[in-house]
Amino acid sequence: MKKALHWLDENLEEFILVMLLIGMTLIMGIQVFCRYVLGMSLSWSEEFTRYLFIWCGFISVSYCSKKCLSIKIEQFVAIFPRRGKAIFKVINHTFELIFFLYMIPFAYSYMRSAVESGQVSPACSIPMYYIQAAPFVSFTLVAFRILQRWIIEFRIAKGEDVFDPAHPERNTPKSFIEANADTGVDNRIKNINNSGKEGL
After folding, report:
1. Interhelix angle 134-157/45-67, nearest 10 degrees
2. Taking residues 61-81, what's their average pLDDT?
């Protein structure tokens, strides 16, 4: 069970995005084959691909939040040490979390309206709440991923040696030393290394 949860935590968005991209590629490939080789066109391919693309776009928001891939300007934050950057990111993630938690009820209401209306898509006859559920699922996942990032950055701001899956460069001994430079941890490690060299 723990392995399954760990795999989902590490790969959920990636797996969904890959499946959606494969689905879009196959459907459009079949459409091109039918149109130019068989001389006929599928009536449902464009609509279904568009719905897959909508889901892909919303799920990618969660993926970017998990991997810290959002577009941002970090020239000012970059001048601070690791712990200083973490403090700014804690503040940033706090506002992001508030925003997405605020948006979740609206996304749920949007999905519920589609359920109650019973509307279906014109070509595929797919219930529209399957498509309109994308914002609700996405915002919920994004809030969860932002909370994970908030916890990581908060622990880094406290000076803990935290494994950060989104920033592999943070997970080296050197980065841990730099993160705790103002606590004297680096001096103790340097003394240990120097004493070891003298012993050799």
Report:
1. 10
2. 78
